[in-house]
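cron nightly-structures :: item 1 of 1
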Amino acid sequence: MSYFKNKCNASGARLLSLLAGFALAVYAAAPVYAFTPFQAPLLSTAAVAPNVVVLLDNSGSMNTVIYHNGFNSKADYPTAMYCKAGTSCTVNNKDHWTETATLSGHDDVAQGDCSAGSYKLGARNAYKVSKKTVYYPGSAGQTVCIPFPDELQINSSGTMADEVDMPKNYLEYLVQGLLAGTFSAADIPTGHRMGVAKSVVKQVIADNISGVRFGLASFRPGNTASGSTGEVYEQQGGIILSQLGAAQSTLNTQVNALYGATWTPLSEAYYDVVRYYRGLASSYNAAPATPSDQIQYRCQKSFGIVVTDGAPTYDTKFYNASTDPDRDNPSVGGADNLPNWDGVNPAPPAPYSDGDSSISLGSEGHSYYLDDIASFAYDVDIRPTASTLDNSGKSFEDSTFNKQNIRTYTVGFAQDNQMLKDAAYYGRGKYYTASDSAGLSSALSQALNEISAQAGSGGAGASSSSSLTTSTRYYKTLYDPADWRGTIEAYSLSETTGRLVSRAWTTDSTITPSNNGASYETYNTATNAVVSLNYSNVSNDQQAILDADLPSGITGTQLVDWAKGSAVTGLRTRTVLLGDVINSTLERLSSTERLASSVTGDNSYNTYMSAKAAMTNSLLVNSNDGFFHVIDAETGGHRYAFMPSSVFPSLHTVAAPDYATGGSHKFMVDGGITVADAELGSTWSTVAIAGMGGGGKSMFAVKLFSAGNNSISALWQITAPATSTPANAFNNLGYTYSKPLVARTSDNEWVAIFGNGYGSHLGKASLYVVNLRTGALIQEIVVDANDDGTAPNGLSSPQMVVNAQYQVQKVYAGDLRGNLWEFDFSSVSGSVANSGSPLFAAGVDHPITARPLVVEHTEGGHLVLFGTGKLMESIDKLSTELQTFYGIWDKNGAAGTVESTSLQEQSFTEALDITANGVTQTYYKTSENEVDWDTRRGWYLPLSLDGAREGERVIYPAQTTMGRVIFVTAKVDADDPCQSTGSGKLVELDALSGKMLSYPVLDTNGDGRIDETDIRVSGLAIDGGLPGQPVIIDAGDQKKTQGKYILDSTGEVVVVDECGEVNNGQCGGVSQSRRIMWRQLQ
């Protein structure tokens, strides 16, 4: 190529966009906390930070400027000429043209009427451009100002220390574009590839150092003498500049020291990266002599990211078989297969991406072996020895994670290179160009989230009634990481034992491509209207989103058809249509259940309940296929599906043919669901309101039934803007984990109330109040504005207190920074109670993510019951912070934040292993401290026995029955982060005081009765999986017991029999069997 050695440092708009996208996509955690939901189910994935070695091209061509986005390197532009000093030049006098002249002897760069940092092409026939004179075919007197790079300025001697490359035709393009007014000087990028790469890589490291173990590699720099220009090339291979896990300061120092001055030995250098991962020294140099701490855990994922701007040169020097014990590919002839791992040697000419070509060794594209090294990195077990142990003391040959390998991602700088595409393909990664920032952001997010290995499957449970009868059914959701299918199963329960008896149906057979009767809807963002889900019904902008990033030959129309269940060649093949159900609640819609209370003096709701008897009993669930689903509860048939339009940008990801096999996962519609009866205008209806959880920043509502109308249709959708737009009413909406409330305000307007969620643009915490019928914003109440931007926050699911008119009076909600807030809705507009201060502050390390439970206090006011903890981001699995369960008294007339010193402490006092009927079960006792309500404002229970910090937390709402508070805890094995099953406790306490109950609630001796012969305990251990929120079913008047049905993270149903009636201070129940706890896997 023809280059001007120009001291421009053109802007890195393209690469900056590229790697800034990377910074947002991967685990972003520093320098200040930023919420980034982990995109794989944490209950079934390992929590080990991935290894990422970035191989950054430092060849001479990385000194090239970043081009203006209109430049076409293959186009011909009117000639611009370099004119040697002292030579009379004329247009097109090529005798005087020098393409890569050295920079010396010229100090007359004219600034003229150009602003500082630019140089001038003025009223002459020849002009100096960064010490080089160029012609341009224009009239005398025309002036062109081309900006200098951001980092470089002319010094006092008229020279610049660094130089960058500007291709001749690019300078010609700039001159002509400026003269024609096609663009202005302000539009010209002011950076070069190496400068921008260094800047952005440092930013990526700064933003992700908490969640990613970075290493840095480059090509070996040229042999440079002191004071030289660094252009002595011909060095082989690569060098590991910083080993994995290096400090940010070390990585920054190494990045800053890079400069463009060597050839492009891509496969040699990447081979050194692979050897480093394998614990082997470099083939080409002594650094590092002893690679250390490359892979910490057997489940840890390892990646290489190759960032380059050119084809290979001087890239064929590989050592013989004696230097590498694994050079033999058994599927290829011969025993020494590197670098040609696949044995393919296509004949020239180019383009091809394998083997050698016939051009010279120093020419671009002389050899193409990067795809071979990438394939080798994926094929070879880089920790093959069973006796080698990871940091948790488990063998690297553990059967669950018995192979460790490397996936390869490639980034082409300002080029589209088949070699890089093939390297990513055979390395089981993906290929991107610098201009594809959106695609890079999405795919690198998947790459760094590919930590799932041990499968889990538990989702949520529901029952058809709260009492056990012959017709009672239990429903559970499951997911399968092997293909990310979701399943809902319906089971009949034994009226005698309460156990799951037989499966009535499964969506694996009721919702399939050949068995799908649902109607589909979505939202047109241009018209703000609900429409039938068809490509032609959405806006032009939405169509462009659906058309983007699809496989060749696939259209947006076909993508939509695929989403609705059609088979499309080139997209993922499915045998069942329901996607994985992970964090969504499963709600049963019953024609007889009252979801609001009657209003005094108004009989219209009772009239509606009579009409509601015609409603089809259904199940409601969100799924990561991108839909909110309505399913017939009796048959499992598919009735309806709504796709929020915010799913559109990610739909191609789950439709990709390799989505189910590539080890990645994407949350789509994953939030909780609220079902309520309410008046829409003057018409009573049953509605559902739901969010997207970690899948996005939208909330939507669906009308499920209205008097005389059994049809289903969405009502509205609200979505945060893509970038911060303070004028947008929902700018502070984050990832919508909040489960909404539905009630009337004091002026009888029906509203939905929800926390703004986490990860909003400005990191605020606020409560949203919207019109239930339209979704229009009524009020946003900000409790934490995060004005200094240092402590992003977000409000969690709220709970409310209503009056006899079903008008909301109070709302309580926690936030990510451990604050419990009270909102006053006694007037038309809500406000933050307690003079704008939190009702209670648990502390920044004790986030409140579960909805609080609110009960009336015996001495007036309300008792707010909640636990602390979080399990949404990768680092959450490694947390061992001591969390707590609280009971906070919102005392009538009291003011100020409740201090922790005013709370009565309770504690776990003893763990008992009791064997009954051949089964040993662990039970827990707690303290029985009384609460002096004259001096105390509540109680607290640390989730620890003997003060041990094991990361036990509360992530589900507490429940209440018979004056007891019931909650489950979750504990992940922090000593072995590859272990994902975890464990927890089922805890039952006196709700008012938090003390251990005064009567037995569990059949600890296994005699079939719950009475005074049983030991009083406060809970029991649940091992083998993280317990989900219990479904409580009364066993009936005869047995006077309750069954707690707990679906754990492995997909097993744990059934616990407990006391269901208390008489004279003792339980009067007969258990349904002689085992207190059953683990039932169906």
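cron nightly-structures :: done
The mean pLDDT is 78.
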